[in-house]
Design goal:
2 strands; 1% strand; globular; two-stranded antiparallel ribbon; mainly alpha
């Protein structure tokens, strides 16, 4: 066991034990905090995959978080209140919600990614944000689903053997999902596909000369990251029992990027550390001032200026073992 392995194991073990211990000790608030942390860590991990390993700085990644959430809220809304349901998707079946969310995210990412990936640098950042904002304003204009007021989900997704109304079972699902996502992304990063993706980030000309079509590799990675973020949206909708266009605003995309930077770019466990730091600091500072974003922004500036590797660098986590990109 290397240092990285030990720290990664301790972080995940703490997430598995501490929130549940506090819940049974009469502090259910911290289980809610941990649930939100784990869900956003999944979304941040998907962004870290394309940003850290693929070099694609997307500022519209929250769009897929919102799409996954709306894939839960819209079918439940029609199943309870009736009304127009052209596709016959009015249901509380969680498998339908999950499948619909993954499908919608994959299609939207395939279409927008095929356009966005033909640009580079700041143009890629701007066009991904533009697509996200188009979706944001489109949902604001649909009054059937609450517009900018959002929509309350009256019934959570129904999954066999799970009661998502129970906070402990919901957290267990979220935590196991985080472990599976980290294992999946680690497997992809260490595969030949992942090696080509990382090579394209570092030296695209050389990879092209070797005969690889970089565009296709990046597009597949972009779609995969979108589907993982959509799954996080599915969990988020069941956690909050509420959906809103704010879930896919550019500011939420910025928060996900902050988490990746804080935790450490291109370190597999980095988004978990970043999400923990972001949420805990937000919770702590918000008790002192409503303008908590100011000291938080200063902290982020210090991280960028003096520790470009984020918390992973402070903890001396390298890109090896489960915490990094290589076995």
């Amino acid at each position: 066991m290397t240092r990285s392995n030990w720290i990664t194991t301790l972080v995940l073990a703490a997430l598995a034990v501490v929130p549940l211990g506090l819940y049974y000790a009469g502090q259910p608030f911290w289980l809610d905090i941990a649930s939100r942390l784990v869900i956003l860590a999944i979304a941040a991990a998907s962004l870290n995959f394309i940003l850290g390993y693929g070099g694609m700085v997307s500022f519209g990644h929250a769009a897929y978080l919102g799409l996954g959430a709306y894939a839960v809220g819209i079918p439940v809304h029609h199943s309870i209140f009736g009304g127009l349901d052209v596709l016959g998707l009015a249901t509380s079946n969680g498998w339908v919600h999950l499948g619909l969310g993954l499908l919608v995210c994959a299609v939207f990412a395939l279409i927008t990614g095929a356009v966005s990936l033909r640009t580079k640098g700041v143009y890629f950042i701007m066009i991904t944000m533009a697509f996200s904002q188009m979706l944001y304003y489109a949902l604001i204009s649909i009054s059937t689903y609450g517009g900018d007021d959002g929509l309350t989900i009256m019934s959570r997704s129904e999954l066999p053997g799970l009661a998502l109304d129970d906070p402990v079972q919901l957290y267990a699902l979220c935590f196991v999902s985080l472990l599976v996502v980290l294992a999946l992304l680690r497997m992809v990063v260490n595969s030949r596909f992942g090696q080509v993706l990382q090579g394209a980030r570092g030296n695209p000309q050389r990879v092209t000369m070797l005969g690889f079509n970089i565009f296709h590799y990046q597009l597949v990675a972009y779609v995969l990251a979108a589907m993982v973020a959509g799954y996080a949206g599915f969990l988020l909708a069941n956690f909050t029992a509420y959906i809103s266009p704010e879930m896919m605003d550019w500011t939420r995309s910025g928060e996900l990027m902050f988490m990746v930077i804080l935790g450490g770019v291109a370190v597999l466990v980095g988004p978990v550390l970043g999400a923990a730091a972001f949420i805990l600091v937000e919770e702590l500072l918000s008790h002192f001032t409503v303008y908590w974003q100011l000291p938080f922004g200063l902290m982020l500036m210090l991280v960028v200026l003096y520790s470009k590797g984020g918390l992973a660098q402070w903890l001396r986590l390298n890109q090896s073992g489960p915490g990094g990109g290589k076995p």
